[in-house]
Amino acid sequence: MAMLLHACCGPCAMYPVDFLLNENVDFDLYWFNPNIHPLYEWNRRLENLQKAADHYNVKLIRDGGEGHIDCREDYWKSGEYKDQYASRCEMCYDIRLDNVARFASENGYDSICTTLLVSPYQQHDVISRIAKEKASLYGIEFSYYDFRPGYREGQNMARDIGLYRQKYCGCIFSLEESKFRDKIYKSFEE
Ligand code: SF4
Q1: What is the CATH number of the domain that holds 10?
Q2: The predicted structure's pLDDT at residue 24
Q3: What is the position in ligand 1's atom list of the atom closest to the CA of 170?
Q4: Considering only Cβ atoms within 10 Å of each terminal Cβ, which end of the chain, N or C, has fewer?
Q5: Structural domain contains residue 109
Q6: pLDDT band for position 110 (cuts 50, 70, 90)
Q7: Number of folded domains that form the chain
Q8: 171 lines ligand 1 (CB under 6 A)
Q9: What is the pTM of this model?
């Protein structure tokens, strides 16, 4: 039985995919990232993840299928999460990993993992805890990997194959807080 590997973007997928293939792990990639703002960026990251998947000849599943768009800008902007979650990032991990685990369970996968575990800039322990809870909720396993030692290598691999490497985490808040904010907005116009 296979693992479903949630992927947040192409560059973060490079090292985990390379590592898992070398370990002979059977897995498919899965895209579900409604946090990414704006839609232009959502499409750009998805396209680059597809390039990474093609590079490794790995199957990439898009939630909702080809052409389906799940980019919930308004929800992220609304601040509704404040009543339900300790933080915006906890909500972001929860919504994504809940979807990943449910999809995996409904489609015959026996475990999940996420490329979010490669980034030293993400809340590694919170992601692991939520992924474990979600896997258990849907009756599957969470396959934990600490991919962080390969973060730099993965970013270099992404650069070598010409992937776009974003300068902010994904949501509108991280975009506004980025020191590259102006440059990023300019890139949307190009
Ligand atoms: S900073 Fe990143 S992890 Fe946190 S809410 Fe925004 S996109 Fe999600």
Answers
A1: 3.40.50.620
A2: 97
A3: 7
A4: C
A5: yes
A6: very high
A7: 1
A8: yes
A9: 0.93
Q: Using an 8 Å Cβ cutoff, are 140 and 111 in contact?
A: yes
Average pLDDT over residues 101-128: 97
* Residue 70: domain span: 2-165
In a domain, 171, yes or no: no
Note whether residue 152 is domain-resident: yes
Tell me what the pLDDT averaged over the chain comes to: 92
Between CA 45 and CA 39 the distance in angstroms is 10
Q: Does residue 190 lie in a domain region?
A: no
Q: What is the pLDDT of residue 85?
A: 84
Tokens of 124: 């590694």
Whether 169 is in the pocket of ligand 1, judged by its Cβ within 6 Å, is yes
What ligand 1 atom has the least distance to the C-alpha of 116? 3
Q: Quote the CA–CA distance of 82 and 88 in Å, as a whole number.
A: 7
Q: Which residue has the higher pLDDT, 33 or 79?
A: 33
Helix (H) or strand (E) holding 134: helix 124-137
Q: Judge if the beta carbon of residue 92 lies within 6 A of ligand 1.
A: yes
